[in-house]
Amino acid sequence: MRCVVCNQAKIIFATTSVLLERDELSLMFKNVPAQVCPNCGEAYADEQVTAILLRTAERLALAGTKKEEIEYAMTGT
């Protein structure tokens, strides 16, 4: 599959960082598995990975977390 952003390269399997922010909450997930464009860096996480990130973010928000850096492997996968 070619990158839909730059249309210059085929995406490859790699890891990336994902920043999720809502109001005062700021979560940085590190080493998230994704398909990444080697040309522009655009990352595409699949549906299962995205669901895990969102569930983790919701749980942390409900716990009152404001700012956190999280290894993806630590999200319970």
Helical content (DSSP H or I, runs of 4+):
10-25%
Regions with little confidence, pLDDT below 50 for 5+ residues:
none
Average pLDDT across residues? 93
Q: Can you write the helix and strand succession as a string?
A: EEEHE
End-to-end distance: 26 Å
Rg on CA atoms, Å: 14 Å
By DSSP, the count of extended strands is: 4
Give the percentage of residues in beta strands: 35-45%
| H/I helix tally | 1
* Structural class assignment: alpha+beta
Largest sheet: 4 strands, mixed
> In one word, what is the shape?
elongated
Question: Can you describe what's shown?
Answer:
This protein is of the alpha+beta class. The chain is built from 1 helix and 4 strands; from the N terminus they run βββαβ. It has one helix at residues 47-62; strands spanning 12-22, 25-36, 43-44, 67-71. Strands 1, 2, 3 and 4 form a 4-stranded mixed beta sheet that branches. The longest helix is centred in the C-terminal third of the chain and has 16 residues, at 47-62. The protein is elongated, with a radius of gyration of 14 Å. The model has no long low-confidence stretch (mean pLDDT 93).
